[in-house]
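Input record (one chain):
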Amino acid sequence: MARTRTGSAKGKAPTAKRKATPAKGGASTSKGKATSIEPLLRDLAARMNRAAKAGEQHSIRIQLLGEGSGVWGIETVKGEVRLTRGAGPSNPTLEVIAKSAVIRAILDGKKDGRAAFLAGGIRVRGDIAAAERLSAAMGTHKPSSSGD
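The corresponding structure, as predicted from the sequence alone:
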């Protein structure tokens, strides 16, 4: 994950600043094993990038619980869908909260996202159209053609 360091000339210690990176495929590996859910989320953002309509904006916060927990953001930055790790968007149009294992199973194609949602394994807050676009990128369903 890319990070930048910033500081001031007044002698203050540098502070870490989150840097958005373009969504790209490929797994982070350590001795041949994926080290986090990041490669799956990066692939998801890349699918959203390919499927995005002109002018479409994304501002999604994904909060993962349990083993592999963390907060991720999927945002449109300068016309490109990007994945960031950290607090994510300050005012997201969509927030997804779930156990990391549930999201991993959905992104791996081992679990149906709609079934997980209906069973209470995924909580969603915000814009239903954004949720639908995210769900379509996850492969859970086809996007609607209701004028979007």
